[in-house]
Amino acid sequence: MLAGMASSAAWVALGSLAATPPQACAALTVASLGIAFSDVVADSLVVERGRDDPSTGAALQSMCWGAAAVGGILSAYAGGALLEVRYRCIFSSDILSGFVGLWGAFKVSGIEYVTV
Description:
Layout: H1 2-16, H2 21-50, H3 54-83, H4 87-93, H5 95-109
């Protein structure tokens, strides 16, 4: 969950605060680290669930990679459309990816949270 929050904060900084290349590089590094940590957690959950039934583990791994591919295609398409509007909108829209990761973390961990 902390990785998702850090990634979201980095995308907010990149979309609104980063004015120099070193600031943008730092924000992108933090965002990438947050995504990498989330990916490791997702892979470990797939391995855990796949220990009991190897075919289930393979199906879960395929589903994870398929979801990542679909998300990449959709974000590339949406990014191209937003590029017509304003380049900072692209980075601001990436904030949603961190929040989606946080939502998934809450769902997997079973933590109760208040919906708005």
